[in-house]
What we know:
alpha/beta; 8 strands
Amino acid sequence: MNLWDRFRESLRKTRExxxxxLGALLAHRGPVDAATRERLEETLLAxxxxxxxxxxxxxxxxxxxxxxxxxxxxxxxxxxxxALLAERSxxxxxPDPPEAGAPDPPKPWVALLIGVNGVGKTTFAGKLxxxxxxxxxxxxxIAADTFRAAASDQLExxxxxxxxxxxxxxxxxxxxxxxxDGLSAAKARGCEVALVDTAGRLHTRHNLMAELQxxxxxxxxxxxxxxHHVLLVLDATVGQNGLAQARExxxxxxxxxxxxxxxxxxxxxxxxxxxxxxxxxxxxxxxMGEGLEDWERFDPAAFARGLFE
Length: 309
């Protein structure tokens, strides 16, 4: 399937909810009356777009309908959703090769995967590692989740499936020490990418948030500028319920972008718009299934088209 088809299939449940809520109104053209606006608001809220993002989306869609009479409501929603999601962007990948004469960036490119328990960080780390391996980048997975039973075993399974190297330690080992040894090994082996799978932690556990800050500091001591990307992984099926937790993570470490997992299992895909609107962070990657290749780099236009078309 092409990119749009994958988003369309993953967003099927949410799109069906929108179509059931709006029905023939999706073909509406011209100014929006009060009854249509009320129904549109109810439908977007039911898809978990959230009050703030819903108001922005409706206002911009109404403006589109007034300025372009040939547009229908479906097309106006698609355009405005794509524009909202494209306001910020971040690529989850090492920088492009420097121009001739420019200094090479430090290697490896280091990314931390962070988030609460159960969002699927370890699985996502394996998928992302496989993607870098397919691009010909030598990649190392570092199992810094030393608290959850069998977390290192799970990451090892994914590393083998992805065809990449990995570093693990005994359960209970200081995660910062694991990251230090893992990044030292990545440098010695000439790896281009190092992905650090951190332990899931609740925002209320201040000691664990402090530990995350320590992991980031240690990474920077081993590789200049590391971590070069901090990916906050969120479970799409919980919609906006994870927003409060996500905000606390952004206070602990400088989050670069968001990764969304389990997008194929929810009728609340509209929360993607709310999350981007509320956190003011770009979405870089999304998971759409259980397979090794079931993820995509986020594309605002393809997402919006899959949500409404």
